[in-house]
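Pinned message: reference record for TRAP transporter small permease protein
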Amino acid sequence: MNRASSVPAPLAWIDVVTERLGKALAWLIIVMMLIQFLIVVLRYIFNFNSIPMQESVMYMHAVVFLLAASYTLKHDGHVRVDIFYRGFSARRKAWVDLFGTLFLLFPVMIFIFVSSLGYVGKSWAIFEGSPDTGGIPAVFLLKTLIPVFAVLMILQGVAELIRNVLIITGRITPPPHDDDHLEERV
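Predicted structure (tokens):
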């Protein structure tokens, strides 16, 4: 059975969006490292300090951390204590992931989304800026990443839910997992 043709369109669409977003954000990590390197060089060699440059690294870090979380979920890269899970069959893993999505991921993300709306709304109401003189005047945009994070995680959670139901019902074969890359070997 061709796995690509057996995947429902909503699942394929969410996976494509998540994959493209994650790969685009990977480039931001390189930009962030270069700017951080420049900050260090300017500070210690030329005795020059730039608050906007320092804050830009913080903004980029927040963007990568919050918006790439769904990419990490898609690739099963989040920290997991899997003493029992690793020995489970693919179908049993799908059941665990299904319940984890329904009873952990969704409630937490819904809570984050709902509870962040007032916080973000107040920030937008005053167009909150940096507390530092000369800083980036866009803290309201930074705070907006919180509900966006929750929405992206819920969206990827829906994809994971669909994928796990399809695995449980035998409509698709689970993707092969190479667990060797997920842990350090001592």
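Pinned by admin. Summary line: Residues 9-78+86-169 form one domain.
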